[in-house]
Amino acid sequence: MVDAFSAVFQRPNFLTFVIIFLWGFYIMVTRYNLVKKLIGMYLVQTSVIFFLVSISAKKGATVPVLLSTTEPVQAASYANPLPQVLTLTAIVVGVATLGVGLALCGAIYRQYGSLDEQEILEKLE
Amino acid sequence: MSHQLPAILYLLPLFAAISMPVVCLKHRHWSLPISVAILAAMVMVSILNLHNVVHHGEVRYVFSGWDAPLGIEWVADGLASVIMVLLSSLGLLGVLFTGPTSPKALGGRIVHYYTLILLLISSLTGIVFSGDLFNLFVFLEVAAISSYALVGVAGGRALFAAFRYLILGTIGASFFLLGVSYLYAVTGTLNMADLAERLPLLLNSKAVVGGLLFIFIGLGIKMALVPFHAWMPEAYTYAPDSVSPILAPLITKVALLAWVRIFFWVLNASIVIYDIPILLLVAILGILAAVIGASLALAQRDIKMMFAYGGISHIGIILIGIGQGNQTGFTGGIFYLLNDAVMQAALFFIAGMALCQYGVRTIDDLGRVGKKAPWLTGSLIIVSLGMIGLPPTGGFFGKWYIILGALESGDYISVAAVVLSTLLTLAYFVKLFESIFRQTTTQSDVQFGEIPLSFKLTLGVTSAAIMILGLSSSPIIQLLLNHALPPGL
What we know:
With 125 residues, chain A is mainly alpha-helical.
């Protein structure tokens, strides 16, 4: 038990990821306001992106730009660039999704005059 | 030239989608002919690609000269090429169907609509061909974003359905990305062929098992597998009539294909993780989906809703076939996937035509017009034969091979589930036909307008395709057996 806990606390990035992910999920499930749901959704996406970029970090490593072009490359002294690039793409995807979501929210508000899920469901009946 | 075909297939609709808003800014009516031309070209190129793959083996396309483990690789093998032919022809039919319904149903947003359709088709092409997990994720998301927008394009009640679809779809995508990053953290590679070499040695790692589970959940949401199907019926029911025939056959099936790619080509499908054979799990989920989906369809009164639940149950039947872990079951599952895509397209064409031409939304309305709508009733009879699975149609042969596969592996519960699901399908079509053919006394002399040519064309082609797929089932099955089987099955 203690071992499991200490293993968790040695990886603060995992812990942060789990907290943000569950927080976003909680907001998405419990809130009725559509914009708040979108905020929860964005937290979930951000937590996954955070996790992805955090696995590229190394102790004592620097940004993946070559320090010298003549010496052979020391992989240990650079952070892994691939997750960072993937993260950029994932951020773009997330922003696009959020944009479509906000546009839908705007259209729903113009149509029903409300952003509350329950009020909209009542009007739909 | 011939090895460039996958990239051409992707770039054709992509460039058309990008240039569409500019070209059609002044001339909105150009958007229909341009899309039809592009999609017709895609059909031809995809047939050429299939021919090429069948005769010269699979094509591995490498982008900008970066070889496989480092760069992004696309794999055009037999399975992908067959699905590609299906995808482009259903896209073409969907756009042809749209012609007359579009201005009214889409609220004047014609150019947006065609742009989104072409974007959707191009990203689905990417999903079908992609040999790289992260690339797959990006295309899944582009396809998903364009379908959220397509569902909501006409406004009205569909907006709320589109919003729910967006929330659930994004949860699915986040799970998928999480799974991909787990696998990347363990293996250090995203290329599927490379992963296929490294993963089997690492199956005891909790990170790999967790990653595979997250990928499974993510794609399960995208393919509307039963516990995760909540977004699908509403989104397809309230989407504009010209949108649902394109979304319904393609989105869930292509997500299923991506799943098949990962679990059969990357993992060896017969693996056992923590004493649980994966395929058994798949077959159980398939059984649940097949029975629950069909029972829910029986309870619906809205035609489109009924057809959407029917689609959920058919995803289950395909999974049962794939989950048997033998060649017969797998081929049957893929063959049924082809048939089911055509049948779903035909069903939503029928529902769209019923609503657009006759103002029919529920089963009770259908009784009002049934006898005055020969095209509607006629094609509905043919499609229902296929959905139930009666002999001359493709649906029969798909189910036949799935049941043969299940018998081969001695899984009698799966056989029972397919039969039960068939009976439930029969029940909801009987409900439909009962209302069409029941004599109703209040027959007024309402005159309906002339049926547009495009409706006749799309209904005729899909009905004929259901029959032709059945009549030529043995060469198609042979093609799938020779070229579309995963390694080691």
